Structure to design on (294 residues):
């Protein structure tokens, strides 16, 4: 009986004189030193180069949306053993690798000959493309709240802060951890707070720019901060030339007397504002803080 490598089924049939038959079965296992595949296929993409039993290195490229791939290998010798990434896999059955990273993922197929004298390794480099996702998954800043509430598809936001807020720090998270991120022009890590950004009274627009990992898509979110004006409307001091205030000046006191001799026909007043952004008027005439009225 001619034998192939691996498992060979042999039947021996005996027929009695009365026609009764009985069959005996023999499985002849012909060991070999053959440790090669006769076929190798992938569930997604195309092997490069095309499969050849004597070619041991392959590449396959898959889109970023695919996170898993299955390989099927068929051995020449049915008695040999096939391992994908160390997992014993029956010839002709799928081996699946899930949770593929972007970039190169290596799958190694090892075949051990049935006589345990030889082995070969086939290597498949699965290249998962970089993402084109340039979305944020969250956007916050400690000093206030966004209007409207954050949504990845909404790119324009506003916020109102009190006058005492002079800087803000923004924290943005990208959907894809490999995406590029800049806040107000400065490169920033996803999930990390930006450097303090100065906020002027009035409106300040801050761009948050995301670049997809494959650099094909760029998306800009804008946060417009409105900083309220100062509510400080007090003087820090008043100097009067030609008289003395009664009582002595105190920023919390608003009513004073100024005794003046009958020969004095006018006085000069030099007020100082507590907040340099406030304005001062004496008898409806504006003057600068620290200057004397005429």
């Amino acid at each position: 009986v001619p034998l192939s490598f691996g498992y060979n089924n042999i039947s021996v049939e005996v027929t009695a004189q009365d026609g009764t038959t009985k069959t005996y079965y023999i499985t002849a296992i012909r060991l070999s030193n053959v440790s090669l595949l006769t076929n190798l296929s992938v569930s997604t993409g195309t092997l490069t180069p095309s499969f050849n039993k004597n070619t041991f290195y392959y590449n396959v490229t898959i889109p970023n949306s695919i996170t898993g791939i299955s390989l099927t290998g068929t051995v020449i010798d049915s008695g040999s053993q096939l391992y994908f990434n160390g997992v014993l896999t029956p010839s002709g059955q799928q081996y699946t690798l899930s949770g593929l990273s972007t970039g190169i993922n290596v799958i190694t197929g090892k075949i051990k000959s049935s006589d345990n004298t030889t082995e070969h390794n086939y290597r498949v480099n699965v290249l998962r493309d970089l993402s084109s996702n340039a979305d944020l998954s969250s956007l916050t800043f400690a000093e206030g709240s966004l209007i409207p509430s954050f949504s990845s598809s909404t790119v324009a936001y506003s916020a109102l802060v009190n006058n005492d807020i002079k800087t803000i720090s923004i924290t943005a998270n990208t959907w894809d951890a490999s995406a590029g991120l800049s806040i107000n022009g400065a490169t920033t890590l996803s999930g990390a707070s930006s450097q303090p950004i100065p906020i002027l009274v009035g409106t300040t627009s801050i761009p948050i720019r995301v670049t997809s990992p494959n650099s094909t898509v760029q998306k800009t979110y804008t946060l417009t901060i409105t900083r309220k004006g100062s509510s400080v409307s007090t003087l820090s001091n008043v100097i009067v030339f030609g008289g003395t205030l009664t009582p002595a000046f105190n920023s919390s006191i608003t009513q004073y007397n100024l005794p003046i001799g009958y020969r004095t026909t006018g006085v000069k007043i030099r007020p100082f504002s507590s907040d340099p952004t406030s304005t001062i008027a004496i008898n409806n005439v504006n003057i600068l803080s620290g200057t004397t009225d005429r």
